[in-house]
Each structure stands twice: as structure tokens, then as C-alpha cells.
Amino acid sequence: MPEPLLHVENLRTYFYTPSGVARSVDGVSFDIGAGETVGVVGESGCGKSVTALSILRLIRPPGRVEPGSQILFRGRDLATLSEKEMRDVRGAQIAMVFQEPMSALNPVFTVGDQVAEVVRIHGSGSRKDAWNRAVEMLETVGIPAAGERAHEYPHQLSGGMRQRIVIAMALVMNPALVVADEPTTALDVTIQAQILELLGGLQKKFGTSILMITHDLGVVAESVSRVIVMYGGEVVEQADVRDLFAHAHHPYTEGLLRAMPHMGQQRERLATIPGTVPPATSWPEGCRFHDRCPYAWERCVREHPPLYQIGVNHVSRCHLAEEPERRVPHEIAAAAGAPV
Amino acid sequence: MAETASVAERRRSFGARFWRAPGARWPALIILAVCLAALAGPALWHESATAQGNLVTMQNRPPSAAHPFGTDEASRDVFARVLLGARVSLSVAALSVLISITIGTLYGLVAGYAGGRVDSALMRLIDAMLSIPRVLLLLAVLALWYPVPVTGLILLLGLTGWFGVSRLVRAEVRVARNRDFISAARALGASHARIMLRHLLPNVLAPVIIAATLGVGNVIVLEAGLSYLGIGVQQPLPSWGSIFLDGSASMATAWWVALFPGLAIVITVLAFNVLGDSLRDLLDPRQVDRQGAPALERPRRKHGPRARA
User: Fold this and answer.
1) Cβ contacts (< 8 Å) between B187 and chain A: which residues?
2) Residue A318 belongs to domain spanning
3) Is B188's CB within 8 Å of A166's CB?
4) pLDDT of residue B285
């Protein structure tokens, strides 16, 4: 197997808050290959965005990436780079697309200026060259009349246009990896599809790898090849996208899939996962999902499950891998008189 | 149409809004007139501001065609002195405000952007400095440094005037630095200096401009006060404060010597204060609606229901 573009090993990002140590990301490992799109899904508060920010080393105090975490990008450990070296990586080799296209753009500069600024940070060309490059990039991301639009301010553009600008800023230096943090969440459904299509097209064109962070499994189904499911600051399941949708193993993944509306679904209430994500300062003992899990038994309270290999490229952090006969919801088990 | 408004149109629209704002036009015109008088006046007016006339016949003469503001005790033309005094008073105020705004803005930028302990330490220092009354500090220093040259006075006024500005800027930066575009700039490789100067500074500039405008008015008064006490601008150079001092002794017999520099101070300071308040209304982003059309561009009140009622 060739060396992956990004290899994250045992990433731990803790926040030292007055109410305790928040272990927001707690031992996350994954790979991203060149040209691959990987999705990270999970509810709010399970560590997706912190993972993304950790890769770019944008965690601010009181948070920090714990020693022992490894983030190998093209074989280079980003954790050991100086701030100066890291700046050369950001934007040029790894770029980020933010969720809110309005607030991710500086209101006092024209959009052309903002794309050109990225070129000027990383390139040595003249102001004029940077501007031309920016206009070219705006055309590439589908801004009509890019030459004139480049002179406009963010507030003069629609939400979808703004997100195209943000994508242009991320892609203008042709980075090897783009981290997209909920790139479509703030947009209308029709615009969402356009933006996903645009990202997919650009990825094919430039061979960029994408780490797509989202809570929307629909986005995952449409755009990624491999899915990482996160819960409680950990990876709880990882599989190829088809495999995951067809054979979800972890009860949390099952719950997420069941909470997704389907075409042709008859007037049926959407399923929900009971409870909420616990605060990162106090993950439950044992399996972190056990208090919300429909199958949990005493082993889950006692023993923190490792990632079990359950298929080709498919891992799951659930004891059901060893005791599959336990996959019986509590209420049915209770009705059958079996011990819980 | 807002969608296709170009940069030039936007710029013009600020100019147009500024011009139409009732409280901005006349103070701006007054300030412009005073600045022109300060720049060109002493060269155009035939009388000298410092040369003494005939001490017997020309002392304390009331206003006349030849001396529109009269003459003072030393037989000098008060109009010429007020013109030159405008140059001195305005340049002292403008330069010292430039110094204090620059220091205060940079200090506030660093404190607000750094946050944490650096911010706490820098701001405690400001708290300490603000607990010293500025006027008393100036009086003490000027008492020791006598006679003070004009450049010294500018430096002293500038170096004692930036504490409030740094607090203002720091507060704005604290809000602005948590906005996504700052994280986005970081994520795209911008350095701390670039983020502070290029991304944060323009976003906190509005309150700085307002503070500078109000600051000029403030410093004109302060300098006039110090000069009136005789420890500011020194003879024979006139400032509005020192001319007022010349006339204050003979207020009953030669009221014109004190009246005209006094009026100049009041009118100019009033203009700066009103302009500052108008700029606050014009530049406050909270008054700008989503299309970017500022509240003031809506139908003017003159034609609104309030005028008709």
C-alpha cells in the first residue's frame, strides 16, 4: 500500500477548561489517500471540527494537541513544524473551507482581493499576477462575469456565490488536501447540491484529497468514498461508503442512518437517538455510547471497546463484534424475558 | 442596484451620505475653513502676527477696517495672531492625536489579538495610567520642562492621550478576532502581523476615526488651557490659548483680544465634536442593513411623517 497523503495516529486534543479537561478528540487515527474523499460524520460535540482544526494546528489555548499525537502529512510530522513552517503548509498544501461563507469572508475587502491575498501570502508574484490568478480561480469555481464580480464585496453576493468564493480561496494554491468543515450546512438544499457537485468536479480536475466534515449523511452518500463515524472524541466506525450504508455495525451509526429521511418513506416518525452527546469533560466509563445504546449490557459499562476489524476496510468500536447475538433491543429482550 | 454596485459607487455613496447627513456637513465645512485659514491665512494677511506696532498709538485698538480683530497690548494685529494661532493650535492637536491614535491602536491590536495573560498585563498597565489625571500629569511635567518647545508639547500631549484609544481598539479586536474570517485567514497561512494589520485593523477603524475626531477637539481645549496657564505654547508664537491669556488681563478695556481667540476655540471644538458624533452615526455598522444600505439612505426625515405632523 502506498504511503497515504495524511496519516493521523492517536490524535488527542484536550481543552483545559475551568470545569475540567475536555477530551474533545481522544485517540483518533485515520488515513487519507491522494485524491480520496473521506467523510467524518457525527453529532455536534463529538470532535469532528476539533479534529480538522488540529490537523491545521489551529487549536488555541486553553486547548492543545497532546504530545504523542502524530499528524504525518506527506511523511512529515506537522506537530514538529515551527509556526513559520506551518504557515507555509496552511493554504498552500492543506486548505480549509469553513461552514459559514458570510462570516468566513472579510466584509471590508472585495472578494477578488481576498482570493488574491492567498496567492500573495504564498507566491512571490506581483499584485497584478495575484489578481489575475484570483479572477481565473473565480471562473473555475463558476462565478459568472468573474472579472467584474471580483470587485464586489461579500455582502453583495448570494450565499451560494460566497461559498464558491471561499472554495476559490481554499483551492487557488492547488493544495493537496482540503478540509471542508460542514461546507454546505449554511446553504439552501438546491445550492448544497451545486456546491457538492463543484467540489467533486474540482477534486477530479486537480486531484485534491478532501476531508469532508458533516453531520449530514446525505452529503456523505453523495460525495465521499470512505466514512469515519465519530462519537465521544473517538472513531467508532470506519468503512467504505457503500459498506457503511448497507452494513452499519456500530449502534451509533445505525441510529444515525435510521434518523435519516428516505425517499418514499410512508408517514412514519423519523427515528431519533435518545439522549444527547455527553460533555467532553466527562465521557462515560466503558463504551462512551453505552448510556444511549439500545443494546448495551454490563460489559459495555465496564470495558472500553477497542476497534474491532469486522470486514475488509471496516472497523467498529463495539463489543457486538464479539457477541453478535446481543444485537437485540432492550424492549424486545425484556418482552422475551431475557436478562438485560 | 446594490448587486452590481462598483467600488466607486460605494465610495461615492459614503460621500453622498456624509454630505446629506445634517450633522456632518456644516462642521466639516467649518473645519475645512479653519484649516484653510491656518494654512494660507498668515501668508495672505498683510499684517504680521509677531511684529509690534507703534506702542503708543496702536496699543489695544478696537476692531477697525485695518485691524478687524483690533490690536493687543503689544500693538500686534489680533487677526493675524488668531490666524497664526490656528496654525499652531490645529497642528499641535492634529499631530499629538496622530501620535496617540497610532500608539493606542497598535497597543490595543496587540492586547486584543494576543488575549490571555499578555492582554491582562497590558490592560492593567492601561488601568494604572488612566488612574493618573492627565491634566495634573501634564502640569507636573510642564512645570519641570519650561519653556517647552512646540515639538515637546506635541509629544507630551500625544504620549498621554492614547490610553483610552487602546482600550477602545482592544474591545473591538476582542469581538472581531473571534469572527470566522480571522480563523479562515489563519487557515490559509496568514501570519499574526498580517492578520492584525490587514484583517483586524480595517474592521476596527471606524471607532478609531471617531475617537480621533473627538480627540482633536479635546486636545485643542487642553492645549488652550495649558497655554492659558502660560506653560503651553510660548511667546512670541501665538496659540489660541496664549492669545486669550494676553487678552484676559485687559478684558474690561480691550475685550476683543480675548473674545476672538475664545470664539475660534469654541467654534472649532464644537465642529470637531459634532463631526465626531455624526461620524459615529454614519460609520456604525449596526446601522447598516443587510443590503449594505445604511439607515441614513432611507427617505430623509424632512419628507417623512415627523416633519408633516
Assistant:
1) 56, 58, 90-91, 95-96, 98
2) 251-262+270-335
3) no
4) 52
